[in-house]
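To: structure desk
From: M.T.
Subject: fold request, one chain
Message: Could you run this one when you get a chance? Sequence is below, nothing fancy, just the single chain.
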Amino acid sequence: MQKCKICNFEKGKSFQKQQFLYFQCNLCKTISMNPEPNEQQIINHYKKKFIKGNYELAQKFSEEYLSIYKYYINIIKNTLKKDEKLTKEINLLDVGCFTGDFIFLAQKQGWNVTGYELQEEAVLIAEKKLPGRVHKINVYDQGIKPGQFDIITLFGVIEHVLEPLELIKRVQLLLKKDGYLFIQTPNSSSVISRVFGNSWPPISPIEHIHIFSEKYLIKFLKKQGFNSLKYINHCKYLPIKYVYENLSNFGPDIQNYIRPLYNILPNFIKKLSLPFYGGEMILIGKK
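Reply: Done. Structure tokens follow.
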């Protein structure tokens, strides 16, 4: 009998996405690849996708995509305004910083920024923007001093890793007392995830391994000692053209379905930025 890796519950449903299997737990609602990919499969996947996938698209729509990072900055700034305990000198760590676009903006706020990234191609690009600030290092490296960061961000990260709960435990140790953790990730119990079912774009092997519900993730963060928890439905303002092209990476079945309609849209319509809610969430916790 299959068990949920996250909560060890024995009941759930299995389904296939492409040639891979997923399992959704009836108790915690986590959607997990089952079996999980191995490390080599993951490495090969990201090497293949770097140029023909995420990076190529991010470059093509770099200006438009900055709106998402600016939104993250505003959320952090609004959180800091309400906390008088934090000093003006903010040390921020972005885990999985990719090519460094978010921490490049964060540095402009006067914050001391650090980025950790394992994908070598992304690190080389990020280092050119932020010399000395981006490191190809595993967050579990014992050389990293605990309790040194006021803010740690996990934006689009926990769904990609084999041990997401261990990652949250680890970054909690790296936070200062009264420091903040910001998580952005898909929400497996969102209305849109239930509407789309197995066709929900975040169910994307090998890219996304574990997708949590907000209820379980909040419960886990509380168990780890985080308080003042805040939940935000994450709505992104993006061009129609970007959303459509990104479906080739996340949701090719949906892209195939809407292609006839998209092809007859005028170019000025395709370039319009609209609010898109894909069933993603942002959680903020204070240590």
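Reply (cont.): The chain has one domain: 53-286. Let me know if you need anything else for the meeting.
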